[in-house]
Amino acid sequence: MIPCTKTGCHRWFRNKSGLTQHVNVYHPVLPSVNISVPVEQCQESSAGEEHSQVLPDGYGDSGNPLDDPSNSNPLAEYVGPGDRYYRNYHPNLTGRPCDSLGNFLPAGHPAEPLTDMQPDDWSPYSSRLEFELADFLFTRSQMSAANINELLNLWNASLLSTGGQPIFRDSGEMYKTIDSTPLGDVQWEKFSTSYTGERPTENVPPWMNDTYDIWFRSPKEVIRNMLSRPDFSDAIDYRPFREYESATDSRQWEDFMSGDWAWKQADTISRDPATHGSTFVPIILGSDKTTVSVATGQNDYYPLYLSIGNIRNKVRRAHRNGVILIAFLAIPHMDKEHASTDAFRRFRRQLFHSSLAYILHDLMPGMTEPIVMRFGDGHYRRVIFGLGPYIADYEEQVLLACIVRGWCVKCLAMRQALDTDALYRSREHAEALIEEFDLKNLRDEYGIIGDIIPFTSGFPRADIYELIAPDILHQIIKGTFKDHLVEWVESYLKAMHGTAKANAILDDIDRRIAAVAPFTGLRRFPEGRHFKQWTGNDSKALMKVYLPAIEGHVPVEIVRTFRALLEFTYLICRNVITEETLVMIEDVINCFHKHREIFRESGTVQTFSLPRQHAMKHYPDLICLFGAPNGLCTSITESKHIDAVKDPYRRTNRNKPLGQMLIINQRLDKLAASRRDFSRRGMLEGSCLTATMQLFSTRDGRAHSNTSEAPGLNRCNEDTDEAVDCPTSIEAHVELARTPQTKRARTVTELAAELNLQHLPTILKEFLLQQLDAYDNCDSDLPEWPTYGNKITVVNAAAALFYAPSDISGIGGMRREYIRSCHSWQNGAPRYDCVFVNTDSGLKGMYGLDIVRILAFFSFVSQSKRYPCAVVRWFDRVGDKPDTDTGMWIVRPAFTAQRRPSIGIIHVDTLYRAAHLIPLYATRPVSRNLKPHHSYDSFTAFYINKFIDHHAFSLLSDSY
Fold it and tell me: Given strand 251-253, what is the order of strands in its sheet?
C-alpha cells in the first residue's frame, strides 16, 4: 500500500496510478506563472457594467426567486407562430433578472440603459469616416502597415490643396486609436511552465530543460463580453428547456439548451436553493492544432476556443464571433530519438491538461456560487458556470479523455469489437478502475492511460467522457466517407477486377464526377478525385456527387452502403431533430451496418472496429444530450482557424509572429465590438457616403434621398450562395436580376430566334391568358387574345431566397442562391440551370413539384402590368417514388405528342429554388471530351440530386 504524502491526508493506495489520480484531483499543483500583457492596458469599463462579486448569503430584498421553491413542475409556454410548439422550462434555474448586486427584480421591471452615450458619439474615433476607414483597412482589407502608410500619404497629399485635415497621419496613429477602444477588451496574459519530474543523471533530453509559454485570455471576461452583446439578446436561451410539437406532443431537439445534459446539470445545481433563479451558462471548448505555413517551415499553432451553450446553434455557425479564441497552447517539439519515449508522451499529455486547468481556473468559483453579469438585453442576472461539451477530432478526443488510440472515448467496447454493445464510460468508473488496477491492465483491458488525469477532474459536475461532443466533419465526412468508404471502393475494384481494369473503372468514375453540371456553391473536380491536399470542404463536395458516379461499376450493396451513410449525414445535420428523425437515424445506421458487410465478405477489409465509424451508433444519444450536432462540429473551430490564426499569421513579418498575432486578434475584437455598439445605436445606417451627404445637405437645408439599392440582386456574377440576415418571413421567393442584358434579345421575335423557338409568341399568349385566368373561358381566336408589347427585358439570372436553416444561413435561417440562364457564364461555356417549380402546394416534396430547365429569364409589360417570367423546358418524373437503390427521384426531358421538346413560359413566382440533376450513367462509359455544360444535353435520364445541400435533402425526403 502507498500512502498520500500530503500533510493531513490519510488515504492509502494500491498502486502509483491511484496515488497520481488522487494527488491531481485533491492536491493539485498549478504551474509557475509569469503574467505579461503584449499591448497597453486599456481603460476599464464602468463599474456598473463590470460588477462580478460573489453573491452574499441569502436572497435579495425582493424575496425568493420562485413563489414556491419546492415546486418542481416545469414551466410551460408556447413558442413560435401559431402555437405549433411548446416548451417546458426548468423550474429552478429560470434566468430571473436582478440588480447589479444580485437582488431579484419584480416581474416586468425595465432594464437599465446599456449606455448613456449619445448617438453622435464615435469615441474613440472622431467621426464615422474615421471608424469606417480603420475597420476597412484593418478588418476587411487586412492591409499591412507599410501599405496603410502609403495610402494615407497619398490621401493626405490630396487634402493639402483644399486645406483639409488628415484622418490619420499614419498607421501608428490608427493602431493607437483602435487600441484605446474599451469595448471588447480582454487582455492577453502568459504563464510559463516546465518539467518538474525526475531527470536522468546524464544525457538529459532537451524538453526537460525547456520552458513552455502559454498565452491566454480570462475566460470569465470573454464570457462577460459575450453575454453583454446586444446582438445576441434575441438569440440566447436563459433557461434549459424541452421542446415539443403541440399537435403530437413529440419532442424535438435544436439548440444546446434543449438537450438533456443542460437540464440534468440544472437539476444538480438547483439542489442548492441559493442558485434558484440563476442562469446556467455551459462553457463549450474546442481545440485543434493547425499549420499556417508549410512552405516556410512547419509553423504549428494550438488555438483554444470558447463558446457558451446559451447562444443558439445558428449564431455559433454563422461566423458572428459566437466562438472566441482564448488561448494558444504550447506544442513541445522534440527530435525523433526522444519524441517516442513514454516520458515525453506523458509530459506532453499532462502539459495539455494542466494548461487547460490553469486557463479555466478563474471560472471555478462561479461553478458553485452565482456571480452577477450583465446581459445584452440590459438586465443583470445571477450566473452559474459549468464545463460543457468539448469540440475535438478523434486525435484530440483521445488526448482529452486519456484513452489509448483505437478505443472509443465514449463507451467501454473492446477495441477489437467496437460495434458490440457496451456501457458508457464515466468519471466515477474510471477513477475506481485506476485505484484498482495497474497501468498495464488499465491500458490493455479498458484503454485507459492511468497516469494522466483529465483537466476536468478538478471541476464540479464535469465528466470528460460525457462531454466529448460529436464531430460530423472528422468522424463522418472525412473519416467514414472519404478515408473509409471511398478508399474501400478502390480496393474492392482492384480485388475484383485486377489493377489494370480497376484503374480504367476509376478513371471513368473520375470522368463522371468531372462531368457533373455546375451548381451554385458546388466545388468542381475537373481531374476527378486525384489530388493530394484534401480539405473538409473537398470531402463535403465529393459526397454530393459520388453516389451516381459509382453506380453501375459496383454492386448494389455498395451503392446502398453509400446511400445509408449519406442519409445518416444529412439527417444528423438537420437544424431541428425530432423523435421521428431519431428513428430514421437509427434505421439508416442499421442499413449501413447491414450493407457494408460486402466489403468484409469480399476481403476488402478485415474489421469494422474503427473508432470514427463506430461513433455513428452514439449519435442518437448525443443528440438527446446536446441538441442538434451541427452546433458542436469541428467545422466551426476549423473555420475559426482562418480568422483567428491563419490570416493574422499572414499579416505578421514572421519574426516572433505569435505576439503580433495576439495584438491583431485583440484589435479585431475591438473593431468588431465598436461596430456592434455603433450599429445598436443606429449610427451605421446606409453607407458612409450617403450619411455624409445627408449631413451636409441637412446643414444646407436641403433634403437628400438615399438611392442605394437593396443588396444581393446585383451580385449575380458570383457563383456562391450566401447567408442572408433577414427575418424568417417567407418560405421561398424568386426575383429576377436587376441588370438587363443589352447584348441579348430585346423583343419576343428576337428571343424566339435566339432560342430557336419559332412558336414562342404563341406560348407567350397562352401564358398571358393563364395569368389573366381567362384561358378556359375564352372562345376567341388567337388574334383577339390579350395583347402585349413586343419589347422585353432579358436578364441572365434570378435570385432565390428561401428558408434553409440546416445549411449555412443567416440568423433567421434565410439563404440566397442564384439561378443562371445565359449563353456564356463568366466568359466561358453556356449555363442553363434547372429549378423546382411549384405545381401543387397541397402535396409534399416531389409530389407537389416539377423540374424545369431555364432557357431564358425575361419580363414584359401587358396592360400596364409587368410580368417577370421564364422560358423553360419541362421534365417528367419516372415512376411515383424514388429509386430504391440511390433514394433519388429520376426525371427525363419531356416531349410533346409530336416528339418535340415540351417548352413553356411560367411566372417566376412559381419557381421555388434551383435543382441539381446528375446523369443516370448506368454502365455507359463517359467520353473524355464531355464537359460539365454538356451534361444536361447528353443524357436521357437524370437523378434529382437530393444531396446537393441539406435543404434539397429535406425537401425531397418529404416525398416518401
Answer: 75-79, 85-89, 241-245, 251-253, 577-578
Write the pLDDT tens digit of every residue in 608-622. 999 999 999 999 999
Place of cell 463507451: 411
Please tell me the distance from the alpha carbon of residue 778 to that of residue 768, in angstroms, as a whole number. Answer: 12
Of 572, 607, 383, 570, the C-alpha closest to 469 is 572
pLDDT for 957 beyond 60 = yes
What is the dihedral sign for C-alpha 289, 292, 297, 299? negative
H-run or E-run covering 699: helix 688-699
Percent of the chain with pLDDT over 90: 66
Residues with Cβ within 8 Å of 63's Cβ and at least 6 positions away in sequence, in order, are: 104
Name the band, by pLDDT with cuts 50, 70 and 90, for residue 193.
very high
Paired with 54 in beta bridges are 371
Q: Give the pLDDT confidence of 777-811 residue by residue, as tens digits.
A: 545 444 455 667 779 999 999 999 888 777 776 66
Half-sphere exposure of residue 867, counting CA atoms within 13 Å on the CB side?
24
Q: Is there a contact between 464 and 390 (Cβ–Cβ < 8 Å)?
A: yes
Amino acid occupying residue 202 = E
Per DSSP, 733 falls in state E
pLDDT band at 285 (very low <50, low <70, confident <90, very high): very high
Q: How far apart are the C-alpha atoms of 30 and 392, rounded to whole Å?
A: 25
Q: Which residues contact 824 (CB under 8 A, 6 or more apart)?
A: 830
Nearest-angstrom CA–CA distance, 715 and 564: 37
Element containing residue 350 per DSSP (H, E): helix 342-359
Instruction: Give the other-Cβ count within 10 Å of 767's Cβ.
Output: 20
- Bridge partners (DSSP) of residue 411 are 424
Give the mean pLDDT of the chain.
86
Q: What are phi and psi of 462, to 5 degrees?
A: -115, 120
Q: Which residues on adjacent β-strands are paired with residue 799?
A: 735, 818
CB-neighbour burial class of residue 289 (10 A; exposed 0-12, middle 13-18, buried 19+): middle
Per-residue pLDDT averaged across 823-845, rounded?
91
Other CB atoms within 10 A of residue 335 CB: 9
C-alpha dihedral (570, 576, 579, 580), degrees to nearest 10: -50
DSSP string across 216-230: EE-HHHHHHHHHT-G
Q: What is the torsional sign of CA 166, 167, 171, 177?
A: positive
Residues whose CB is less than 8 angstroms from the CB of residue 64 and which lie 6 or more positions away in sequence, other chains included: 276, 277
pLDDT value of residue 41: 36
Handedness of CA 860, 863, 864, 869 (dihedral sign): negative
425 φ, ψ (degrees, to nearest 5): -70, 155
CB atoms within 10 A of CB 169: 12
3-state DSSP: the chain helix, strand, coil percent, rounded to 5? 40, 20, 45
How many CB atoms sit inside 10 A of residue 842's CB?
6
The stretch 138-165 carries a mean pLDDT of 88
pLDDT at 15: 63
Beta-ladder partners of 48: none
Transcribe 308-328 into DSSP letters. Answer: ETTB-HHHHHTTSS-SEEEEE
pLDDT of res. 558: 97
Adjacent-strand bridge partners of 903: 873
Q: Determine the distance from the C-alpha atom of residue 50 to the mean position of all C-alpha atoms in its chain, rounded to a whole number.
A: 31
322-352 pLDDT, tens digit per residue, is 999 999 999 998 777 778 888 999 999 999 9
| Torsional sign, CA 195, 196, 197, 198 | positive
Task: Choose among 490, 98, 536, 50: nearest CA to 290.
Answer: 536
Quote the CA–CA distance of 234 and 446 in Å, as a whole number: 45
CB 75 within 8 A of CB 91: yes
C-beta of residue 952 within 8 angstroms of C-beta of residue 945: yes
Query: What distance in Å separates the CA atoms of residue 201 and residue 471, rounded to the nearest whole number?
Result: 45
Could you tell me if 734 and 869 are in contact, meaning their C-beta atoms sit under 8 angstroms apart?
Answer: no
